[in-house]
Write a structure and sequence with these properties.
Structural class: alpha/beta
Largest sheet: 6 strands, mixed
Strand content: 5-15%
Order of helices and strands: HEHEHEHEHEHEHHEHEHHEHHEH
Distance between the termini: 50 Å
Oligomer: single chain
Radius of gyration: 21 Å
Helix content: 40-55%
Strand order of the largest sheet: 1-2-10-7-8-9
Number of strands: 10
Bound molecules: ligand AN7
Number of helices: 14
Length: 359
């Protein structure tokens, strides 16, 4: 029988705080493809690879951290977990809690999370609470609840989440057989930026790699507290996953940028949507808007002359496009795609396609 990927806790048991006493709560996360992106290489002159994290069981990278956080929560006897979320964390928390047979309470900003993610949280029987506030308000409440009530916090302020997420860097190194020169990644709370930096650092310390990648992180222009160095009170962007004004891992991210000679940039929503379309139409990978910011960041930095030809570049795209499918139907001029309707005749379809019958 072909070998089945066993999830990140089992695959990387020697690199994580997993013991005999840890119940492994897994949905088979990790082991996602690192795909060459010839169209992006052609556009930039770099050697570009995409880490497609939408291939995780709930469709985002959050599963890597959630298998760790929920397994450790259960190890410590937790019967209920709680998180604040812009959507993906809630989907993942609800799924892993369901698998573990415990309760997940999820706090999301009212009306500000994508339909697919809302659907997942409900489908997995999460206790979904829509808060009349933004993500930052939700996180504050979740922290206070975890402090004063018997619920275990699984946001990325919980180090178990960062630990699980660092495994994506291990997987990249396994494929490339070294670290890349540059790694591009979206930033919301900066947990994942921190996690990849930790993963790449551990690989360097083990002597597996020869360098640290320069860690390039991107926030949406209307929601760019780290880039501008101040909390954003009312963050605004179509990339709802990263609509975060006061990132939880801010300090860790600053430290990681310094250590990797990294960069933080802000990207306008129109550029995010353009990059999403380039990735879906030229590479064949459909991601949600927040994830496309990695691609937009690369195109922007490349145009600025900051990415030397021949550099090895990896991009993390964090969540699947099916989470928030409305953006795929939006055409470049902002209008909605209208399907062409024809009668049920071969010749009618051929006419629309501009095909001429062969002689
Ligand atoms: C697709 O689900 O914060 O910088 O509550 O869903 O580690 O926060 C999501 C974040 C990037 C940013 N891409 O990662 C949540 C949440 C996608 C995301 C990020 C998120 P961090």
């Amino acid at each position: 029988m072909a070998k089945q990927w066993r999830g990140v806790l089992r695959e990387y048991a020697d690199r994580l705080d997993v013991t005999e006493a840890t119940p492994v709560i897994t949905l088979g996360e990790g082991g996602t493809p690192l795909l060459p992106a010839p169209a992006l290489s052609a556009r930039t002159g770099a050697n570009v690879w995409v880490k497609f994290e939408g291939m995780n069981p709930t469709g985002s990278f959050k599963d890597r951290g959630m298998t760790m956080a929920v397994s450790k929560a259960v190890e410590h006897g937790a019967k209920a977990i709680i998180c604040a979320s812009t959507g993906n964390t809630s989907a993942s928390a609800a799924a892993y809690a369901a698998h573990a047979g415990i309760t997940a309470a999820v706090l999301v900003p009212e009306g500000k999370i994508a339909m697919g993610k809302l659907s997942q949280a409900v489908a997995h029987n999460g206790q979904l609470i829509q808060v009349q506030g933004n993500f930052d308000d939700c996180l504050e409440i979740a922290r206070e609840l975890a402090e004063h009530y018997p619920v275990h916090l699984v946001n990325s302020v919980n180090n178990d989440r960062i630990e699980g997420q660092k495994t994506a860097a291990f997987e990249i190194v396994e494929v490339l057989e070294d670290a890349p020169d540059f790694h591009f990644i979206p930033i919301g709370n900066a947990g994942n930026y921190t996690a990849y930096t930790r993963g790449f650092t551990e690989e360097l310390e083990r002597g597996i790699t020869t360098k640290l990648p320069r860690m390039f992180g991107f926030q949406a222009a209307g929601s760019a507290p780290i880039v501008h160095g101040e909390v954003v009170k009312n963050p605004d962007t179509i990339a709802s996953a990263i609509r975060i004004g006061n990132p939880a891992s801010w300090e860790l991210a600053l430290e990681a940028r310094t250590r990797t000679n990294g960069y933080f940039g802000a990207i306008e929503d129109t550029k995010i949507l353009e990059a999403q379309r380039i990735l879906s139409s030229e590479v064949g990978i459909f991601v949600e808007p927040a994830s496309a910011i990695s691609v937009a960041g690369l195109l922007e930095r490349s145009a600025a002359g900051e990415i030397p030809a021949g550099s090895t570049v990896t991009l993390t795209v964090t969540g699947h496009g099916l989470k928030d499918p409305q953006w795929g139907l939006r055409l470049e001029d902002g209008s909605q795609a209208q399907p062409t309707i024809v009668s049920a005749e071969t010749s009618a379809v051929a006419d629309v396609l501009g095909l001429k019958a062969q002689a």
